[in-house]
Structure to design on (243 residues):
């Protein structure tokens, strides 16, 4: 007597149902584990607010791009991250109009607290809190206690050519760094120490770390004009340049 096809197919249906249930359970576990991991690692979570104290993560650059277009959000990030700063009135005109003037009042920057755009201040804070100190500890066994800069604002073009694009310095959207002073008194300069084995390794690591929080980073590896400093900016012209 022939077997009923319906009875033969029933075990297969049960097996398929159990397989689907297992797949759903595995998916739920993955989603739960992923949500927990993102909660514990907000620097990788694109939906978590930007906290400048966190190490750079997968979502950091996207968040920095967002606050570049939103000064209110940028200042909120500074405030919630415990950064002391003040905002100043708009100055300048034309291509050198500076609507965003933010001054980090407690950062270890010398000779004086520079006035930059808020995104530059945010990038500096991430660098100060994370990569810069790690580079100093790894290569020099010390901490950076002072950063010497050459300024942020200069109403000029990139080159002497009249057709040259305006520099990010024209609006204070960049800062030039020339030296670092350590807690043991050593002073490391870009000009004198770039080719030094130990100090140069620190400088290169510091340069690379800055690329995690700035859109453009230029060093002596870029050209002779940057032989004595790092140029760090948050402009969109050369997004991603790290050299």
């Amino acid at each position: 007597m022939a077997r009923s096809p319906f009875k033969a197919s029933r075990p297969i249906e049960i097996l398929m149902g159990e397989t689907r249930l297992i797949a759903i359970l595995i998916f739920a576990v993955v989603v739960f584990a992923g949500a927990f991991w993102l909660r514990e690692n907000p620097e990788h979570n694109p939906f978590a607010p930007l906290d400048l104290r966190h190490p750079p993560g997968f979502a950091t650059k996207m968040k920095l791009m967002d606050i570049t277009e939103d000064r209110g959000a940028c200042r909120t990030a500074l405030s919630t991250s415990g950064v002391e700063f003040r905002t100043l009135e708009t100055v300048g005109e034309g291509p050198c109009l500076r609507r965003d003037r933010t001054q980090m009042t407690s950062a270890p920057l010398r000779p004086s607290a520079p006035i930059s755009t808020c995104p530059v201040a945010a990038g500096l804070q991430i660098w100060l809190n994370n990569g810069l100190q790690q580079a100093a500890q790894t290569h020099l066994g010390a901490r950076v206690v002072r950063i010497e800069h050459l300024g942020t604002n200069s109403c000029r073009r990139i080159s002497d050519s009249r057709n040259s694009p305006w520099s990010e310095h024209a609006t204070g959207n960049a800062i030039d760094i020339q030296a670092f002073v350590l807690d043991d008194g050593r002073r490391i300069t870009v000009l004198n120490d770039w080719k030094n084995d130990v100090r140069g390794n620190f400088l290169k690591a510091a340069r690379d770390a800055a690329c995690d929080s700035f859109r453009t980073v230029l060093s002596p590896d870029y050209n002779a004009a940057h032989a004595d400093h790092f140029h760090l900016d948050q402009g969109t012209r050369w997004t991603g340049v790290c050299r």
User: Anything to note?
Assistant: Residues 5-40 form the longest helix (36 residues). Residues 163 and 176 are 23 Å apart (CA to CA). Residues 43-242 form one domain. The chain has one domain: 43-242.
